[in-house]
Structure formats: structure tokens, C-alpha cells
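To close the section, here is one more complete example, presented without commentary so you can practise reading it yourself. The ligand is zinc ion.
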Amino acid sequence: MTGRMVEIPVTDDHMHLYKHLRLKALEEFRRAGGTHVFLVTLLSKHYGVFPKKGSDFREIFDAHVKLVEEANEIVKAYAVLGVHPAEITILGEKLGYERAAEIMKEGLELAGKYVEEGKAVAIKSGRPHYTVSEEVWRLSNEVMFHAFEVARDASCAIQLHTESYSRKGIEEIAELAKKAGIKLFRVVKHFAPPRVDEFEEVGIFPSVIAMGNNAIRAATLGDRFTLETDYIDDPERPGAVLGPKTVPKKVKELLRCGFSEELVFKVCKDNVEKVYGVEIEL
Ligand SMILES: [Zn+2]
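Output:
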């Protein structure tokens, strides 16, 4: 008999399952050492749904909750339900941008209800990562603000998909979040760069995209972050953004490079527990 390895928590903070590997992606994640995962909804078009009212998101959320239940047979999985900020363009082109924003707000309210019912642990919102008109930018900020209010009322975390990182950008988002009355550590910048020191100063929580040396760079600057792959599971982009084994690999790399198990427990357990209000058990 060899000595039992100490079990290490390995959490991927933001992953999608669509139609490439589906649950097999989580089997790969588990085999590589992954233990916990946050599964996030995709755009409505990925579900073949064109929402004309907020309640049309129910079909998407129910499908996602069911998928997360199945995922839980493999690893511990949590549902994040969102209305992707790019819906403003998809819905707005057909229904008008004002109406699109209303539908998105209603969809987010519905997501908040699922959290209150215990079917999901967080919601997702944000604002477009591409250039939009002034009107669409204003409406997108209104939708995001409403999402902060929904998360505040449901006492849950909110993941944000936003424009590329800038200090000014996250400061502006932090101001909006404060105005809405949500605790800043519950506001997660998904696809964050490893500037964990700046995020700590501003208060928004970074979910660092585990590409290249990001995990090591983040760990060099502090321990207030989580790691994610943003795995999309799209057959047309099979390894994008990063493959499902990436976070386990990066955690092993951190340990190999001399970072402590304590750091890994902080990143993959304590931080996750604090932000999402879940218990990471091994
Ligand atoms: Zn994503």
C-alpha cells in the first residue's frame, strides 16, 4: 500500500457544456484531478430558443438545471444561470433594443428565482465585449445594474461577462454595483487577467482565465482569485477557450512551482465558498 494522497480541491469557476464532449468533458476534468465546477448557461441561440419575453428563459434554465444534475453524478457541479450581454444585439435587432433590455431584465429576475429555489447558486450578466452604439451601451448598463439588484435580493454571486479588462472599466462596474447595494466580493469578473492586486484594491472578484502563465502570475500577486477555463464545448471550436483539463493542470503546476497547498485551498475552496456561499467538500 502506498500512502494516501492528500486530496486537493480543484475548482473550475466558469465552464459551459454544449454539444461537443458534453458530460465527457467533466469526466476528463475529474480524471485530471478536478473536483468542483460551475456550469454556466450559454446564449439563447445555443438552445434553439428566441426569447420574446422573460419567461421564455425558463426553457433554457430548466435544460441547464437538468444538465447540472447529470453533471453531479461525475463531479460536484453548480448551476450559474444568466442572460448573456450579447442578447441585447441578438434580441434587439428583431424586437428593438428597449424591448430586448426589458426581456433581459425579466430573464435575470427569473434566474434570481431559481437561485432562491436552490436550483442555481449564481446569476450571470455583464455588458457587451464588442463596440455598440451609445443607446445599446446605456441599455446594457441598465440591464447589468438590474442584475446587481437581483443578485443582491437573492443574496447570491453574479458572474460578469464584460469588455476587456481595464482598471477604469472595473472601477466603473464597482461603482454601479455599490450603487445597487451588492457586496463587491460577490461580483465576479469572469475571464479576468491575473491582476489580482488591482482587483483586490477595487473590490470586484477576479475569476482568472487559466491560460499561459496566468495562474502563476496571479498567485505571485496574491491569493484572492479563482480559476476558470471558459470551456465552451463547441464542436466548431473544440478546445476553446481552454480545454476541460486546464485548471487541474494549472493547479498541479502551481504546486510544482513551489506554491503551497494552502494557496490552492484558498483559491479552489475558501474563495469559492466565500463568493458563492457554497461548501466545498472533498
Ligand atoms: Zn463563458
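Once you have examined the C-alpha cells, check your reading against these statements. Residues 14, 16, 40, 230 surround zinc ion (CB under 6 Å). The chain has one domain: 13-276.
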